[in-house]
Specification:
Chain A: It is found in: Cytoplasmic vesicle membrane; Golgi apparatus. Chain A: It comes from Cyprinus carpio carpio. Chain A: InterPro entries: AP_complex_ssu, AP_mu_sigma_su, APS3, Clathrin_sm-chain_CS. The complex is a heterodimer of chains A (162) and B (1160). In chain A, 49% of the residues lie in helices and 22% in strands. Chain A is an alpha+beta fold and 162 residues long. A five-stranded antiparallel sheet of chain A has the order 2-1-5-4-3, with helices on both faces. Chain B is of the alpha+beta class. Chain B contains 43 helices and 16 strands. In chain B, strand 3 and strand 4 form a beta hairpin. Chain B is globular, with a radius of gyration of 39 Å. Classes of the chains: A alpha+beta (162), B alpha+beta (1160).
Chain lengths: 162, 1160
Amino acid sequence: MIKAILIFNNHGKPRLSKFYEHYTEDTEQQIIRETFHLVSKRDENICNFLEGGLLIGGSENKLIYRHYATLYFVFCVDSSESELGILDLIQVFVETLDKCFENVCELDLIFHMDKVHNILAEMVMGGMVLETNMSEIITQAEAHNKMEKSETFIFQCPRQDR
Amino acid sequence: MALKIVKGSIDRMFDKNLQDLVRGIRNHKEDEAKYISTCIDEIKQELKQDNIAVKANAVCKLTYLQMLGYDVSWAAFNIVEVMSSSKFTYKRIGYLAASQCFHEGTDVIMLTTNQIRKDLSSPNQYDTGVALTGLSCFVTPDLARDLANDIMTLMSHTKPYIRKKAVLIMYKVFLKYPESLRPAFPRLKEKLEDPDPGVQSAAVNVICELARRNPKNYLSLAPLFFKLMTSSTNNWVLIKIIKLFGALTPLEPRLGKKLIEPLTNLIHSTSAMSLLYECVNTVIAVLISLSSGMPNHSASIQLCVQKLRILIEDSDQNLKYLGLLAMSKILKTHPKSVQSHKDLILQCLDDKDESIRLRALDLLYGMVSKKNLMEIVKKLMLHVDKAEGTTYRDELLTKIIDICSQSNYQYITNFEWYISILVELTRLEGTRHGHLIASQMLDVAIRVKAIRGFAVAQMATLLDNAHLLTGNTQRNGICEVLYAAAWICGEFSEHLEDPMQTLEAMLRPKVATLPGHIQAVYVQNAAKLFATVLQKHEGETDSQAAQETSQLLIDRLPLFVQSANLEVQERASCILQLVKYIQKLQQKNVEVAEEVTALFAGELNPVAPKAQKKVPIPEGLDLDAWINEPPSESESEDEKPKVVFAKEEPKHYRSRHTEVDEKELARRREVRKQEQANNPFYIKASPSSQKVYDAPGVEHIPVVQIDLSVPLKVPGMPMSDQYLKLEEERRQKEKAERKKKEKKKKREKRGKGRKADSGPESEEDITPAHQVDIVTEEMPENALPSDDDDKDPNDPHKALDIDLDKPLADSEKLPVRTHRPEVLKSPAEDRDSKSVPQETKKKSSKEKKEKKKDKEKDRKQIKPTVHWFPVQKSSKHKKKKQKKEKEEKEKKKKKRHHHHHHHGDAGGEDSVQNGTVEEEEPLPPMSNYSLLAENSYIKMVYDIQGNHQDESKVVVSVIFENKSDSFLKSMEFNVLDSLNSKLQRPEGAGPHDGLTVPFQLPPGVSNEARFVFSVQSIVMPQKLKGTLTFIVKSDESSTHEKLDFKLHFTCTSYLITTPCYSDAYAKLLESGDLKGSSLRLEGINMPFHHLLARICFHHHFSVVERIDSCASMYSRSIQGHHVCLLVKTSDQTVSIDAKCDEPSLLGNVLDEIKQTFSKC
């Protein structure tokens, strides 16, 4: 099971947080801070796994992260997930974002948190991996966008009449 | 109308969208909080508007703010509104917001059931998908129960997109509503062979997650998974399956044997490192499970170790890390194969990555032998010196101690070396592990007799240089070692070369700055030293020196007498008096040494920590039996915590007058004050008495303070390294000698004195430096071996421990939402059908019982069934027969394996535990719904239930039934709040506004609505007046009607069925915090189990334990009051003894129970 997925930047500013167990908002912020603290002090080129922080599950859980340019992508998982598999999954996630946003950068995530959530929802559901095939994920995301556009069109009609 | 639309659009143009909000926050970096609070105000305004687009936009912004840590639960109702929008775009925004901030405690979730059901059955697959995704994050037990059937239908949806989501979410449903597992499982299993790979992978995912927690129930799926493993090409699926096999093999070794070959093939063929790694892991698991049976798998082990070596040598740090992790698993069973890679692992200690170093340390633990221990520890000590971060250094320190002390110091050949290592470790500044070093010193000194002389000398040096260790007492944990040092020097003072010097060191004024418990040990051991010194002087007939020693103590001890620490004070004053007395005797030239030494004579032996626990209870001793007759009722509760319930038959008792009049009390107080005034050791409030600190005499003694800021190597302190060299030389010499001997006695048989527990290498060559006898810890003679591995009772997965191979019973079908109108026509029928939730409750109790049986059966079956092949299904009739046989078998087994069944059905055959009631006869149908009000149009029945999450909320479920031929609409439900109980109204509504019932009723239809009430005090029952207004609409006319009602909040409705384990229950009763009361019911002629079921059902109790015609029951109020009942019956008379921490609540509950039974 995946317990949480966090994206934050090099300064620890959250860009996306998805918790699959309930925590209060304060605890969530503490977890983000703690995770940032743990992850950010690690050099590049050392291993991408570390034992979970105290707040989220303790030693039972692992943090698996990847660092891309200005962003950290952190997955907190328990022992039923394969470490290397999750690393691949993060890669798939980032590549998917790259396709959907066309050369994704931090700004895309900042302004379109909702879209990132929607893409993530096609990959992981309720803490379990739903889909790992990138083209399938993109197809679904595009279908969603199409639905959205068609609705906006209908919705905008009265405005254009005016 | 058109104007309104235009106005709405214009408004919207001025609203901020999410991007504007983000931009705004970025532009207000200095006053972010202020800016956000104005934004929240704007959002609140937007949420008040009717336009759903505006609301959705507002909710979207709230989702962003939630991520930044703002609590947005106040908008929960608006989120529900947006969720129910017909437009996909808004619906998705709503569900996203809900998934981010809804949880089991959110009340409005109750309102979403119908909406979610509607979305699940939407013709648009994306509506369904969004609903499933959202639900996966906030599913509650209620939602799971109500929607399980709908989701199960979706598992066979035509679109794979929906199927895979439905399959995945089932796991969450199982967790929240375990009863759904058995009915849904066949379909889930079917999905393992779904044509769509996504659905297949989802099914594998769910089953793996289930099996991981309760593997034995899933053994029968092994062939199916085996097929998948050999056919699937999806690495994700393969990894999951292989991980699952890793969990299954320990239960079925035959499975393991089958797996080895395909797994090794995969290891050879795959290029995916993730898959390779999981294969290696599972092979290791298989080998571990086989290790006892078949040792001949060295080829597989070699392959694994080889592959792992490649991983560890890889430049990718991730692979290195995982390689070490897997290596440590092999180490447990096949240490030899790992030991040959010692070089590699020692290399990893130098890695720049801390996680890798820690893993390598773990490995080292298992790799040491007598031969290499010193060398490895030396290397670690080097790392200790180099390590900068205290965490890693502390980790090293504990590892060194772990490595050395493992399996009773098995690998230590030279304890002098070990002591010096420990002493060297004390030089670490700022470590938290002072107590660990201390306990090692104590342990070694006590248990290795030969080392005491050396240890004492070392400890004396430590004491002498104590100032080096106590540089910064507050944060420095290392001063704990002084505790050990002082005790060792005191206890084994006969080994001290210069006890006088040590005694002086222990009585330095600076000692008073140490923590209290250490001072206490100092004082006590100073006395022991004193005894030794006296003896020494008297042996030399040096009475002058002896008297000087006494004087020294008399001079120094007063400092400790004034200590703030009670124990120090007590010991010091006691010893001070003793020494003063001795001094008097000495002045009369009486020889005292012998008698003083006698005070501390005798040796302290080590006792194993679990010794007491392991003493078996001798036969015939009943610890629960009364030693004396139980005391009479008159005495207060506190005096007789053992009496769980008041005895039934009234006893004659004498009342005791303990009351004391005021005068007497005043007199006693005076006396006490006097006593305190005269007591020199009583610390009074006045500050003057505390200033006697610098007692005369202390200053006169010259104390040489060597104040070194940097801890230097102290002369006399040993260097552990020298032992390494010595040891090498010694071994060389021994070898040489042995060779000589061998030459001499060539024909003589070698290896006479071989030790049985020699390490993996040729350890018999190494003999300990000096004969060491490790005193084992004392155990009682007939101690029992015991294992304390109890599962966590709170684990949610425990509920999912369900036998899945048994055919499905009718009673287990998932609750299906039926249309009530047809059923509800006749009042007799309506009881059964209206109460869907109760029916499931009943079912669940049945099921639980079945589960329990299954569990027992499983335990019995583990040996006989061949799990590799699907278990054949037998008819029920046959089963019964088998069961009997099995029961007999188990009884026999039980006798044999008495100790292994600690946590089984220890209560005996005829006792029922934990909320289940034995089914002897079918129970009559029961319903908790009672009539609220009725007129010619409408009938309302209601039930009140407590809320688990919130201690001040109860939920009133009202079923509205339309009795007329007209359409009922615009129903408004209103209640006149009292001070204590209030109807929860949506934000912004006034305190007298009614709540709109969220549905309309066509003729003959009934539906249920829920209302949340907040209550403050729950100890008294309450009635609230209310009105329902509605419009009756027939073809020709419509009229306003109203119906008054009285809502009766009984105390029972504040109770929540909470299971309680019998030991927790006993503890609760023994605590003595509960007040008692009792109730007697005459003329009850129903079977006992019916009676219990009624109490359980109507009054929300659960049975803790039942023995014959006596049962203990438990319930809890929403505010956490415990209510305990002891129900006994004997021909038509039922007596209920009750205890509760709130007497008035208890009284009311008992009254209500009485009423329940007076009705029938």
